[in-house]
Amino acid sequence: MARFKTQSSSLVGAVFALGILAGAAVVLVSPGGLAITVAPPPTNNKFLRDCQIKIATCGLEVFNGIFKSAPVSANCCHRLVYMGKTCHDELVKSLISQPLFKGNQAQILASAQRTWDYCFSVPY
User: What is the spatial distance between Cα 79 and Cα 107, in angstroms, rounded to a whole number?
Assistant: First the structure.
């Protein structure tokens, strides 16, 4: 599995994902001192908010599984599967709608599917 090139560091990506999944805006400071405010896509969608709540404690781990090919624990896999495929897909689509991920959408969607398939196969 491949890592994805973004316009910023992997730490920025991790903080960004955590902020998106928590529904909060995040202010990032680049090594050069440039402050960048990254906000989650605005959502009045109760479904997405409920998905964010269901995965919140494992959001960063699942994000790293998708974007950095990092292992996802059995606990977080079970939480992801409990959250449901539709929630997983919609949260990923919400993330990749951000300019930070422009140009990598197809790769990210494929990696998200691999992460889902792996987690779905983890026994309870």
Answer: 23
